[in-house]
Amino acid sequence: MTAQIFSRLLSVAAATGLVAAPIVGQAQDTIAQGDLLGLPSDLSMLQDTDPNKRVATAVVNGFVITQTDIDQRVALLLAANQRPVSDQEMIRVRMQVLRNLIDETLQIQAALAQEIDVAQAEVDQTYARVAAQNFGQEPEKMDEHLRSIGSSPAALKRQITGEIAWNNLLRRNVAPFVNVSSEEVNEMIARMEASRGTEEYRLGEIFLSATPETSAAVESNANKIVEQLRQGGSFVAYARQFSEASTAAVGGDLGWIQLPQLKNDQLETVAGEMSPGQLVGPIAIPGGYSILYLIDKRQVLMADPRDAVLSLKQIQIAFDPGTSQEAAQQRVASFTEGVKNIRGCGDAENAAAQLGANVVTNDQIRVRALPEQLQSIILDLQVGQSTPPFGSFEEGVRVLMLCGRDDPQVAAGPDFNQIMGQLEEDRIEKRAQRYLRDLRNDAFIEYN
After folding, report:
1. So what's the pLDDT on residue 83?
2. CA-CA distance, 84 to 90, in Å (whole number)?
3. pLDDT (tens digit, 9 = 90+) per residue, 326-379?
4. Closest-CA residue to 190 (of 444, 414, 384, 445)
5. Rounded-to-integer distance, Cα 431 and Cα 172, Å
6. Is the distance from CB of 404 to CB of 344 less than 8 angstroms?
7. Residues 312 and 386 sit within 8 Å (Cβ to Cβ)
């Protein structure tokens, strides 16, 4: 429950946890950047100091980010993370939380400067919706929970305020000035029609902006995120917390795209070689680094067999506690042989009763809803045939019998409005990145 509430805060650990090994070539890139700045290759520091330990709070254009602000955001993270954090990790956690609070403050200040105020009622409504999803329509229970972990309702509402303010600012000051012509959309549709039958990709992306001066630090940060993701972190949560792309709000999901829509040769090459479920990155691109996750892929403008709707019978046997390994194996062998002799779905119930098995019927299962290991097996079955047995002695052994299959219709052609919306989002994203970068450059920030 806690992880659901604070999934966006959970990913802060990516920038604070285990440090990945440096990427080959990073040292050479750093030297090249040093040459551009005119820095000597051998530096002698005049003071031995660790800025991570020295910097605790900040004043952003006169607004004070207090120790309490940081403590309460860190508490949200630790509650969501649900694992011990070392002293060294805690330093990095606090620094990342401070950076997030600085950006959030700049976004709220920019909105207020444009007389874009966030109504408290809107914040409360969003807060109540989160409470309803996790505490059954009782915001008071979430209030109590936040206080019990060392945070507060105000801390979560402040983050909600920042998100709403920034989205409203982009909606008023950026989106109206982004234009996509009908000719551009029609050109994209023509390219899609020309590539009918080729691969289409659903990608997730985490984009971290970087300048030549910050490239090494951003790359290191990206490596930490990748390592945490490989250890089982949620890509959606990490994208929401760290990605500087506009798709952060939807967990980095780019939707279904063709590779040319990435508008980057390197990203196209990398994505084209990925398999569903694969994570790749960080990838150096103009303006920063990208981390890609291939959610799924399909053929352009063609029906996907995995969208077929199946009618299945699940035939399952269970094992009594204390059943020996040998006895269980014998029963599985008998069950496997008995399933082979079932004469189609009409005979399933009678045959299952003789085998001491249970039957569960479901007539509305999409292929893609099944575990990936079963999808290709099911697609190769004819009506009345069954999968090989699968499962365990603890959870039961079962087979799936195919009793019907409604194949999907041929996919519709490209949607004009959908493609226009995607092109507009891409341009809004790029302008939003520049906007926040300018806010950082112009900010007066004092660290304590």
Report:
1. 59
2. 10
3. 888 888 888 888 888 888 888 888 888 888 888 888 888 888 778 777 887 888
4. 414
5. 13
6. no
7. no
Taking the alpha carbons at both ends of the chain, their separation in whole angstroms is 35
Question: What is the edge-to-edge ordering of all strands in the sheet holding 445-447?
Answer: 63-65, 58-60, 445-447
Q: Which residues of the chain have pLDDT under 50?
A: 1-36, 46-55
DSSP string, 375-409: HHHHHTPPTT-BPPPEEETTTEEEEEEEEEEEPPP
| Residue 3: both structure tokens together | 């992880």
Question: In sequence order, what are the residues at sequence separation of 6 or more whose Cβ sits closer than 8 angstroms to the Cβ of residue 131?
Answer: 137, 138, 139, 141, 142
Residues of the chain with CATH 3.10.50.40: 182-301+413-436, 305-406
- pLDDT tens-digit series, residues 118-155: 889 998 888 888 887 766 657 788 888 888 888 888 88
> Rounded to 5 degrees, what are φ and ψ at 57?
-135, 180
Which residue shows structure tokens 């105020």?
117
Phi, psi of 45 (to 5 degrees): -75, 135
Fold classification of 305-406 (topology level): Chitinase A; domain 3 (3.10.50)
What gap in Å lies between CA 40 and CA 354, rounded to an integer?
Answer: 83
CA 21 to each of CA 87, 118, 219, 241, 289: distance values in angstroms, whole numbers, following the listed order: 20, 43, 11, 23, 17
Measured CA to CA, the distance from residue 181 to residue 189 in angstroms comes to 13
Helix (H, G, I), strand (E, B), or coil: what is residue 373?
A: helix
Tens digit of pLDDT for each residue in 93-107?
A: 788 788 888 888 999
Q: Which pLDDT score, from 0 to 100, does residue 343 have? A: 85
Q: What is the pLDDT of residue 16?
A: 35
Between the alpha carbon of residue 416 and those of residues 45, 183, 189, 371, 429, the distances in Å are 59, 11, 8, 34, 20
| Bridge partner list, 392 | 396
The DSSP output letter for 303 is -
Its CATH class, for the domain covering 2-177, is: mainly alpha
DSSP string, 143-175: HHHHHHTT--HHHHHHHHHHHHHHHHHHHHHTG
HSE-up of residue 11 (Cα within 13 Å, Cβ side): 24
CATH code of the domain made up of 182-301+413-436: 3.10.50.40
Sheet with 358-366: list strands edge to edge.
358-366, 309-317, 396-406, 390-392
Percent helix, strand, coil in the chain, to 5, is: 55, 15, 30
What residue ranges of the chain are covered by domains with CATH 1.10.4030?
2-177
